[in-house]
Amino acid sequence: MLSRRQAIGLLAGVAPALRLARAAADLPAITPGPFKGTRESLKEWQVPAWYRDAKFGIWAHWGPQSAAEYGDWYARNMYIQGQRQYDYHVKTYGHPSKFGFKDVIPTWKAAQFEPEHLIELYKKAGAKYFCSMGVHHDGFDLWKSAHQPRWNSVAAGPKIDVVGLWKKAATKHELRFAVSEHLAPSYQWFSVSHGSDKTGPLAGVPYDGVDPAYADLYHEYASDFKIGSGTGFGSAGIPDSWKLHYFKRINDLVDNYQPDLLYTDGGIYYEDYGLGVVANHYNVNAKLHGGHCEAVYTSKTPRDCETGTCVLDLERGVASGIPANPWQTDTCVGDWHYNKTVFEEHRYKTPKRVIDMLVDIVSRNGNLMLNFPLPNSGMPDADELKILDEITKWMSVNSEGIYATRPWKAFGEGPVASASPVSGRGPGFNENGRRDLTAQEVRFTTKGSNLYAFVMGWPEKEAVVKALSTKSTVAPFKVKNVELLGFKGKVKWTQDENGLTVQMPPQKPSDHAIALKVRGA
């Protein structure tokens, strides 16, 4: 017989399971297919070959928060007294009790938005997939949304189907199509719109979020909900009605645009609701491919991706070592949403930093999804176009060692490669702590019988790859031939107990990392 303590413990474990079972039973049906909305079923999912081969994607993290051109989380921070966006908003537009985010939305014009032209640029730069923003934490949908009929890009702002136009252009140019959704945190994240100033002449005057006429944008909250209580990346205080609304809205996006990749800003939210979203995404895709799923879902929660299910995404971070499963870095050349001060002060990542990150990530079994934030107009600025041009030039020489490659026994060698992993905030956010890569650093990829050794700077006279020593402790590798990608002549090389030594030609074939194509026995 169970003791009273054991019985209480058993009931405590059963009650959440029963609640989840009831929630699952109450959810609308998902698209039929090979997957059910359960963790056990989703473990059977496998990373598709196209994604493992693609390595590089470009993202347009663009929406109505880009209208002000003043950086990340504008729709939230404009309601927080003391934030730089609040100060800018009051100075530029007026106080948020009078001019709120609902009034910012019509100022997003997208007057120079040419998706086909941009997709052409991104494809030339080597992107194999493109990601459109679907909906950010601001709750504004970038498609003709069935569940957000007033606040979407067809009904308001530029009055165009942003997701649809991106997809049409990506499909025409044979890029895999992705969408990002950041909706789940909105309920908590946007609650600050119901607050007020704490000091000053308008202290206590409610912001425009309290107006019930705009509850479909700013949400309705129970009287006991703590306004501004966190940024919403948990589930505390979230009503089931919001979870169901989230489920329906993201499924509407997937059902109508059938993305190859669905990026979620966080983990799988709200258990059965989120699992249903993932299963629906995979089943919609399987229906397009004769029952075989070729879709990808990304999560930032490692536990979600331990077995099948999804690809782990590290925001602004790089994994240590070589993870067994393919993974993804998502990062940006500047801020996530366009920030004109970054352009004015030329504070974007340099082309070298972007290319170094790409090579380093691919050597570790990862993909890079890189955001070029678009301004209000929808046309990249001059500095962004320069970065794109540099990536294009580099890829035209070295992409052979990137696409469709797999990791070697070691991802690299050099002082940075052998240093302790850089810690970050959570599983990502470590990119700023990473040191610059020089000619002392080498990164490896493989394809067939070829090993690609990327020397991460110009070594002037000769490059030495120590891991290819005749006495290597990494892996035996008898070198048969060496080429330098982008150099038409033959290079002189020797392999001995010190490593593979390659004499450099007078002219470097690339301004950034150079690739040695090493053919083995």
Notes on the protein architecture:
This protein is of the alpha/beta class and 521 residues long. 29% of the residues lie in helices and 16% in strands. It has helices at 4-26, 39-42, 49-54, 74-77, 84-92, 101-104, 115-124, 162-172, 186-189, 215-218, 240-257, 272-288, 340-344, 351-363, 382-398, 415-418; strands at 56-60, 129-135, 176-181, 261-264, 296-299, 311-315, 327-332, 366-371, 412-413, 442-447, 450-455, 462-465, 479-484, 493-496, 499-503, 514-520. Strands 1-2-3-4-5-6-7-8 form an eight-stranded parallel barrel, surrounded by five helices. Helix 7 (115-124) crosses helix 8 (162-172).
What Rg, in angstroms, do the CA atoms define? 25 Å
Our estimate of the beta-strand percent is 15-25%
Mean pLDDT: 94
Percentage of residues in helical conformation = 25-40%
The main sheet comes to: 8 strands, parallel, barrel
Task: Note the main attributes of this structure.
eight-stranded parallel barrel; 521 residues
In short:
The chain has 521 residues and is α/β, with parallel strands linked by helices. The chain has 16 helices and 16 strands.
List the helices and strands and how they pair.
Blueprint: H1 4-26, H2 39-42, H3 49-54, E1 56-60, H4 74-77, H5 84-92, H6 101-104, H7 115-124, E2 129-135, H8 162-172, E3 176-181, H9 186-189, H10 215-218, H11 240-257, E4 261-264, H12 272-288, E5 296-299, E6 311-315, E7 327-332, H13 340-344, H14 351-363, E8 366-371, H15 382-398, E9 412-413, H16 415-418, E10 442-447, E11 450-455, E12 462-465, E13 479-484, E14 493-496, E15 499-503, E16 514-520
Parallel strand pairs: 1-2, 1-8, 2-3, 3-4, 4-5, 5-6, 6-7, 7-8
Antiparallel strand pairs: 9-10, 10-11, 11-16, 12-15, 13-16, 14-15
Helix pairs in contact: 7-8, 11-12
